[in-house]
C-alpha cells in the first residue's frame, strides 16, 4: 500500500470532481478525522489515517484491502469509480445521473419517458426493495 503519485492523484481527482465539483476537499478533511487515498494492487482505497497507521504493521502481500475501495486504475491508466464510492460521493453530488437520451430526443419526448438515470438512488432501491410498495 502506497500513496498515489502526482499523476495518479490528478487523474483520480479529475474524475471525482466531475461528480462532486469543489467539494473534493471535504472528502479529505472531514470533521471525524483526516482521510487519505492509498493505492494497493491498482485499486484506490479511501481510509482514515488512524486506521492506516495501524495497518502499517501488516505486510503488503498479506493485506487484502483497507478502507473503502473508491475505484481502480485500468491498464491504460484511466480511473474507474466503483459503486462502493457512491455512499461517500452522494452527499456532495451535484447531480448524479447519466443521460438516457440525446439532447435532440429530449426536446420531443413524451412527459413520462426516462431522460436521466439517477444513479444515486439505485443502491437505496436495491437495499429497500422488499419494503417498497
Chain-wise SSE layout:
Blueprint: E1 2-3, H1 6-20, H2 24-28, E2 29-30, E3 33-40, E4 43-48, H3 49-55, E5 68-73, E6 79-81, H4 86-89, E7 97-99, H5 103-107, E8 116-118, H6 120-127
Antiparallel strand pairs: 1-3, 2-3, 3-4, 4-5, 5-6, 7-8
Your description of this structure?
InterPro entries: NIP7_N, Nip7_N_euk, UPF0113_PUA. This is Nucleolar pre-rRNA processing protein NIP7. The chain is an alpha+beta fold and 133 residues long. It has one domain: Nuclear Transport Factor 2, Chain: A, CATH 3.10.450. The protein contains 6 helices and 8 strands, in the order βααβββαββαβαβα. Strands 1, 2, 3, 4, 5 and 6 form a 6-stranded antiparallel β-sheet that branches. It starts with a strand and ends in a 6-residue tail after the last helix. The model has no long low-confidence stretch (mean pLDDT 81).
What is the structure about, briefly put?
By secondary structure, the chain is α+β, with helices and mostly antiparallel strands. It is elongated.
The SS-based structural class is alpha+beta
* CATH hierarchy class name: Alpha Beta
* Largest sheet report: 6 strands, antiparallel
Query: What characteristic shape results from the CA principal axes?
Result: elongated
- Give helix and strand order, one letter per element, not per position: EHHEEEHEEHEHEH
Quickly count the domains. Answer: 1
Q: Look at the structure and give the mean pLDDT.
A: 81
The radius of gyration over CA amounts to: 18 Å
CATH topology: Nuclear Transport Factor 2, Chain: A
CATH architecture: Roll
Distance between the termini: 45 Å
Bin the helical content: 25-40%
Amino acid at each position: 500500500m502506497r500513496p498515489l503519485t502526482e499523476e495518479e492523484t490528478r487523474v483520480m481527482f479529475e474524475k471525482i470532481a466531475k461528480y462532486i465539483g469543489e467539494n473534493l476537499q471535504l472528502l479529505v478533511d472531514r470533521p471525524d478525522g483526516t482521510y487519505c487515498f492509498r493505492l494497493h494492487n491498482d485499486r484506490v482505497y479511501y481510509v482514515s489515517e488512524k486506521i492506516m497507521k495501524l495497518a502499517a504493521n501488516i505486510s503488503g502481500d498479506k493485506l487484502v484491502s483497507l478502507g473503502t475501495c473508491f475505484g481502480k486504475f485500468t491498464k491504460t491508466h484511466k480511473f474507474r469509480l466503483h459503486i462502493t464510492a457512491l455512499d461517500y460521493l452522494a452527499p456532495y453530488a451535484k447531480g448524479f445521473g447519466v443521460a438516457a437520451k440525446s439532447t435532440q430526443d429530449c426536446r420531443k419526448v413524451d412527459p413520462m419517458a426516462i431522460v436521466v438515470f439517477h444513479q444515486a438512488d439505485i443502491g437505496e432501491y436495491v437495499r429497500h426493495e422488499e419494503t417498497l410498495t
